[in-house]
Write a structure and sequence with these properties.
The structure holds two protein chains of two kinds.
Chain A lengths: L1 H22 L9 E10 L13 H7 L5 E11 L6 E4 L5 E10 L2 E8 L2 E8 L3 E9 L2 E9 L1
Chain B lengths: L2 H10 L5 H12 L2 H27 L5 H8 L21 H12 L4 E4 L5 E4 L15 E7 L4 E5 L9 E5 L19
Parallel strand pairs in B: 2-4
Antiparallel strand pairs in B: 1-2, 4-5
Helix pairs in contact in B: 1-3
The chains are: A alpha+beta, B alpha+beta.
Chain lengths: 147, 185
């Protein structure tokens, strides 16, 4: 009788453990805020976009062959919250940012654009660019910043 | 070290001529004490090589660049000599990229990625898991399709990483940005 009770108790405990394991999936680590400014760069001169006033100089210096820059879209989201974040770019391609966690002072992010994935180690508060995709006579520049 | 030990070392190191080695082998075969010495020297050599390999593997070269910089003079380096004029030819994408590359970036590694794609990595000081100087590190690229990937890390501390993904031909004119640490966008 005691053996049967032990068995039932053991099964009950095991079921409880399994329920806890199934009911509480491992929470994905929440990362920093990622800001993305989608910029259209053209080689012909054009008016300055006030939305880009804070990065105008850096854009002009970094992409010296391009004379006008216009912000087409702006995004901000928390990395790692609810899985990978996907942006639809103006050229119909997707840009996906998958947070992989923090390692020391940097954040690991897999950035996928089209069929290309870049595994990045990014420090916070550091501006960097992704550029080169053709769009309406110019290129797209993504200005990226981890807040 | 005795003359015999010296000969033994030369024998182990393969520094003897063929005739010398043959003669020494005959002496070795008849002398158990010499054989024991040979085994001891050989064992010591293997142990030392093992220790050296472990030391090299464990060595940290992460600080190498900083140490090198400290040894550089503070005075500005002399201006590079003017390059000889090159004949005016219709430059293809590769030539134009190479020209741009020479003008603005320091190439360290050029690597091919997936089948139809080429990934060009350029890194001035990048490497390792930890980011030094706040640079963005591209730890890996999975590149499919006919696109060219250029990853540039400028040499100056305040520069910005640019990850180029080129659909087709593009002129990639550019210079190093100097972003501050404020929130720019």
């Amino acid at each position: 009788m005691f053996a049967a009770m032990k068995t039932r108790l053991g099964l009950a405990l095991l079921s409880g453990v399994l329920l806890v394991a199934v009911g509480a999936p491992a929470a994905q680590a929440q990362g920093p805020e990622l800001k993305v400014s989608v910029v259209h760069a053209l080689k012909k001169p054009g008016p300055k976009d006030p939305a880009l006033s804070r990065v105008q100089g850096k854009l002009e210096k970094t992409f010296a062959g391009y004379k006008s820059f216009k912000e087409l879209a702006k995004h901000q989201f928390t990395l790692g919250k609810g899985g990978p974040a996907t942006l639809k770019l103006p050229n119909k391609k997707d840009a996906t940012f998958d947070y992989k966690g923090k390692n020391g002072t940097t954040h690991k992010v897999a950035m996928t654009i089209g069929k290309n994935t870049f595994n990045l180690a990014i420090p916070e508060k550091r501006l960097f660019f992704q550029a080169g995709l053709k769009h309406e006579g110019g290129i797209l520049v993504l200005a990226l910043y981890l807040k | 070290m005795s003359a015999r030990d010296d000969e033994l070392m030369r024998f182990i190191d393969g520094a003897m001529s063929t005739d010398e080695a043959a003669a020494f082998e005959q002496i070795l075969a008849a002398d158990p004490a010499l054989q024991a010495d040979r085994d001891a020297f050989a064992f010591t050599g293997r142990a030392l090589r093992g220790v050296m390999a472990a030391e090299v593997e464990a060595a940290d070269f992460g600080d190498f660049w900083r140490q090198l910089e400290e040894k550089l003079p503070d005075a500005p380096l002399p201006a590079p000599r003017e390059a000889a004029p090159t004949p005016a030819v219709e430059a293809g994408l590769g030539a134009r990229l190479a020209g741009w590359w020479r003008a603005y970036w320091t190439p360290v590694l050029v690597s091919a990625a997936a089948a139809a794609a080429v990934a060009w990595f350029v890194s001035a000081r990048a490497g390792g898991d930890e980011v030094t100087g706040g640079q963005i590190i591209v730890e890996g690229v999975e590149n499919e399709g006919p696109q060219t990937v250029l990853i540039s890390q400028p040499e100056d501390e305040g520069g910005a990483t640019v990850i180029w993904l080129l659909d087709e031909e593009h002129e990639t004119d550019g210079e190093v940005a100097s972003p501050d640490d404020g929130d720019p966008i």
